Amino acid sequence: MDGTGDYELDHIILTRDAINKRVSEIAASISEEYRGEELIFTGVLKGAVIFMSDLVRSLDRSVDAKMDFIAVSSYGNASTSSGAVKMIKDMDTYIEGKNVILVEDIMDTGLTLSYLREMLMARGPSAFRTCVLLEKPDRKKVDSIMDYRGFTMPDEFVVGYGLDYAGKWRNLPDIWCVTKR
Ligand code: PRP
User: What's 137's DSSP letter?
Assistant: First the structure.
């Protein structure tokens, strides 16, 4: 069996087909809301890269989609959130008066999303939306508005489709549960 350190892949919890279907549905909703408008897709590195790249390619072509990235640190190499959020890389785009959509792979405690919402809202975007592929409601510590959501998940440690353990398994097309050896 494939593995890294003290964790190994156990079973698939979300197949690539289920993910693709949901990503298309979210893209259709976003396209409906922002048809003909500019929208700055802001991915939170590194986990959101795969989700965001599929999402923007599923949009209606009338959406004027721009891409930018932001990096924060919350987990480090541990499998649970430390609660501390630190900015590592800011986005490059000047967002005052623009439509912004923050794209995240997962909301766990909600600390990262609420930190980024507050920071980016202070820059005066004309609209600010959040789009999160996975939500773990059992782990939530702070309420944070999610405008577009892919799936709600049980409190399992998951990897694949951008999600990692110690930098590994982001490239898997399906989302897997991992377990301790
Ligand atoms: C993950 C995820 C979110 C954050 C969510 O990032 O991508 O940014 O944790 O956790 P929270 O709701 O408890 O704040 P991580 O720090 O693992 O970085 P990565 O995206 O580079 O894997």
Answer: G
Contacts of 3 by beta carbon, 8 Å cutoff, 6+ apart: 9, 181
Q: Whose CA is nearest to atom 22 of ligand 1?
A: 47
Fold of 16-152: Rossmann fold (3.40.50)
Spatial separation of the C-alpha atoms in residues 129 and 113, rounded to whole Å: 11
Atom nearest to 144 CA in ligand 1: 12
Known catalytic membership, residue 108: yes
C-alpha to C-alpha distance for 117 and 26, rounded to whole angstroms? 20
Dihedrals phi, psi of 151, to nearest 5 degrees: -140, 150
List pLDDT tens digits, range 37-71. 999 999 999 999 999 999 999 999 999 999 999 99
Residue extents of the structural domains in the chain: 16-152
| Residue 2: closest CA among 161, 168, 173, 166 | 168
Please compute Rg for the chain using Cα positions: 16
Q: Which of helix, strand or coil describes residue 130?
A: strand
Probe ligand 1: pick from 86, 88, 106, max atoms within 8 Å of CB?
A: 106
